[in-house]
Amino acid sequence: LACSHHHCAFPLNCNELCIWNTATAQPLRLSGHYYSISAVSFGSKPNPLLVCSASRERVIVWDLDECTQKVQEGLTPRGIVIGTLLGMVLHVRFSPDDQQVAVCAGNRIYMLSAKNEAILAELDGHLAPVTAAEFCTSEKSMLVSVSEDRTFKARKLCLSFFFSLKVWNYSTGQLIYQSGVLTAFPLLSLLIDEENKQIITGCAEGQLWIFSLISGHNYRCVALINLKKQQEKFCNKVWKSGKKIGSTGRNTSKLCKTNNMRPEGSVETSLPVLLIEHCDFLICFHNEENISSALNTNYFWIGSSTGLLIINLSNFELEGFLSYKDYSDLSIRFAGSCAITRKAVNGKVLCLITSMFEDMIAVLEVNLAALVRTQQTDFLLSRNKKSLSVIARYRITLNVFFPLRVKSTVKDQPLVFHNKIKSSGYTAAPQTTMFSPNNNLKKKEVSKWKTTCKQKNKEYPLESYPPIKYEKGISVTCKPTPICCIQYSGDGEMLACGLADKSVLIFNSNLTNTYNVFAGHDGAVNSVGWSHDKKWLVSASEDRTLRVWSVCKNEPALILGKEKFLKTVRFVQFYFIDAFILLCCGSEFHLLSFNLDTTKDDLKPYKQRSVCKLVQKFPMASTVEITSLSAVNDFYSYIVLMAGSNRALEVFDLNAGCSTAVIPEAHTRSVYQICQNKGSSFSTQQPEAYNLFMTTAAGDGIKLWDLRTLR
Questions:
Q1: Domain span holding position 519
Q2: Zinc-finger: is it a keyword of this entry (predicted)?
């Protein structure tokens, strides 16, 4: 099958080629093949519009304008035979200038002239039938091919015909590059994203691979997408959206039921990638103010045997799904082949599908904007809602649920010497919020606060390139010892690391010498964290203890023993400009208030005078263990970000004391690191834009998230 702007091409009666004009609804029947037509493709240029059809005995190029004129004159239209007896042809593709045609026949690719019968080049390297080939328009002489041998190849000809991931030198026949076996299933489709310089290929099991074409990247894989999981995730999101918005729920309930509620005893179908094509997604935002967010994003159609999917290439998520089963007027339930127009006409695209089991072809007219809006109403409406902000909008005065113990500056005296004793406050009404913003700050106080933040935090030079060059290394121990965690101080001048040998080390950032060594844990140190003033260091270990160290001394100022924690503390840090300690233990994270006192009692020098009290525990929903946690300590922020073993991300607002957002299955594997900008909120001219993103790392890759939309 093949689709152009106003034309659809498909075999008729096996060996006839039918060109259907969607504007005039007039068919054009072209005869010239003796065997069944197995591959069809339109040319790259609209004028003249060429179409190539191939069977096992010949390959023919047709000029549609000439053919239409001959039919009007009562003559039989004839095409140009450019190849004969090449074998079973599975795919044909015109070059960008329509001068050559790549013909995939058996295990070989033939480069044929589009003007006459001449084989310009013959490429032999695949071990199974070649299923697709694409020219790269941005690079001269470049072509990429995929095959049922589960590899993709890039070829380069000295005669300047093509180049791709399996690289060939045509004059010598030398193979320069070849990919390994990607999957256990045949690769069926291929597309080159010229704008992002990427290769996208799909297999029969419903997986997409994305490879980089950027020079120096060596065609490395940048993403792997499981369409089945993305479809289930999308349907769950639509179903939840339908529960909130009644109209959306009525429109999308059928979609969710079709894909998520499989009857007992039924067969689960895979999603073979039959087609990958550009999607004109901008028409969905024709009257939207936020069209700028879609301008820098590419979208693609994925044609499968059960429906059409729209993939967002920026976050590799599903934006829309059309299931053939949901339309009673469509008799085709499983497609064997499909084609779709790249550009939308009047907001609609044409899709051509054939039945997998019957001799039947259907033409679908898809209203792209209506499809996306009915499935994403909740998301589109949420653009106008107030979004989360990492930065507190006001300076905060602390009010907690219990009176903090503060070191007294008055000499010890009997209580009877005092005329008045201040009430403990137990009769007062309980606090309803953990933090109370002070809205009555004067301008002078705000400007003074901003100046203080600027002085304490250094700005990273924006004109500098990111660090990519190895500068210096240091051996932390005499024998090989794993380093479990590492943390820079806020000003970047000190570096702390926790080791598997139960010790904590502090270095100067230039690694010239060891500043201090702390010992006392009975297990590997899992996490270390600096205080805002750089005077204290907190550490957590496998021995289920937490310790706060004075940077200038070797003894801990505070120790929390095993009786405080039922499970190992995986992460610990200071929070809210050193007002609290934040840690995660099992499926909960704890907020602790503390007071550090390093003075010694002459009668009891061994007794710890520092105190720490639990403010509250916050459980993360539906997870066994919190795998990563992140919060800002260098400025006031309510937001705490965390990830769980259930592969979800959750956002907590500690001012409200509850979870505000959950992102289920943020990665296909558990997130082991969350990173956000923790520098001063006044380190740039636009602080809010500076703190609106976070990065998550998991076994399947790294993702950048927008905290305003959580996408």
A1: 483-598+607-710
A2: no
Beta-bridged to residue 42, according to DSSP, are 51
User: Residue 705 pairs with which residues in a beta bridge?
Assistant: 694
List the structure tokens of 144. 């990429």
Torsion over CA of 239, 245, 247 and 252, rounded to 10 degrees? -10
Phi-psi region of 578 (alpha: psi -120 to 50; beta: other; left: phi over 0): left
Between CA 597 and CA 591 the distance in angstroms is 20
Q: 410: exposed, middle or buried (C-beta count within 10 Å: 0-12, 13-18, 19+)? A: exposed
CA atoms of 34 and 50, how far apart (whole Å): 21
Ranges of residues in the chain whose predicted pLDDT is under 50: 157-165, 167-173, 244-253, 257-261, 263, 265, 289-292, 378-385, 393-419, 421, 425-426, 428-432, 437-439, 441, 446, 449, 453-457, 681-687
188 near 205, Cβ under 8 Å?
no
Q: Would 52 be classed as within a structural domain? A: no
Same domain? 393 vs 516: no
Sole residue written with tokens 């459980």: 619
CB atoms under 10 Å from CB of 240, counted, come to 13
Q: How far is CA 504 from the centre of its chain?
A: 35
Within 10 angstroms of residue 620's Cβ, the number of other Cβ atoms is 26
- Tell how strand 89-94 and strand 168-169 pair up: unpaired
The burial of 482, by beta-carbon neighbours within 10 Å (0-12 exposed, 13-18 middle, 19 or more buried), is given as: exposed
Q: Distance of CA 181 to CAs 213, 329, 668, Å?
A: 19, 41, 22
The SS3 call for residue 612 is strand
Reference 400, options 437, 436, 429; nearest CA is 436
Among residues 350, 371, 400, the one where a domain terminates is 400
Q: Around Cβ 609, how many Cβ atoms within 10 Å?
A: 16
**490 and 630: one domain?**
yes
The CATH code of the domain that includes 701 is: 2.130.10.10
pTM confidence score = 0.61
487 with 613, same domain: the answer is yes
User: How many residues comprise the chain?
Assistant: 711
Distance (Å, rounded) from C-alpha 247 to C-alpha 251?
A: 6
Query: Within 10 Å of residue 558's Cβ, how many Cβ atoms?
Result: 23
Does residue 352 share a domain with residue 488? Answer: no
Same domain, 390 and 495: no
Residue 259 belongs to some domain of the structure = no
3-state SS string for 17-47: EEEEECCCCEEEEEECCCCCCCEEEECCCCC
Q: 513 and 385: one domain? A: no
Q: Which two tokens stand for residue 166?
A: 């399996």
Read off φ and ψ for residue 181, nearest 5 degrees. Answer: -70, 125
Going from the C-alpha of 154 to that of each of 119, 258, 464, the distances in angstroms are 19, 40, 36
Q: Is residue 254 part of a domain?
A: no
Please give the backbone phi and psi of residue 404, each rounded to the nearest 5 degrees, phi first.
-70, 145
- CA 671 to chain centroid: 13
With 0-12 / 13-18 / 19 or more C-beta atoms within 10 angstroms meaning exposed / middle / buried, residue 273 is buried
In a domain, 349, yes or no: yes
Please give the full DSSP string across 658-706, using - where no structure is assigned.
EEEEEETTSSSS-EEEEEE--S-TTSSS-HHHHTSEEEEEETTEEEEEE
Cβ neighbours around 331 below 10 Å, total: 11
Burial class of residue 546, CB neighbours in 10 A (0-12, 13-18, 19+): buried
Tell me the torsion sign for CA atoms 574, 605, 613, 435. Answer: negative
Per-residue pLDDT tens digits for 577-599: 999 999 999 999 999 999 999 88
Beta-strand runs (E) in 356-513:
361-367, 396-398, 435-437, 483-488, 494-499, 503-508
| Boundary residue ending a domain (400, 433, 458) | 400
Across 125-169, the runs of DSSP E, i.e. the strands, are 130-135, 143-147, 152-155, 168-169
Query: Apex CA 648: angle with CA 644 and CA 650, to 5°?
Result: 85
Task: Determine the Cα–Cα distance for residues 77 and 37; give it in Å rounded to an integer.
Answer: 17
Instruction: Look at the chain and report how many structural domains it folds into.
Output: 2
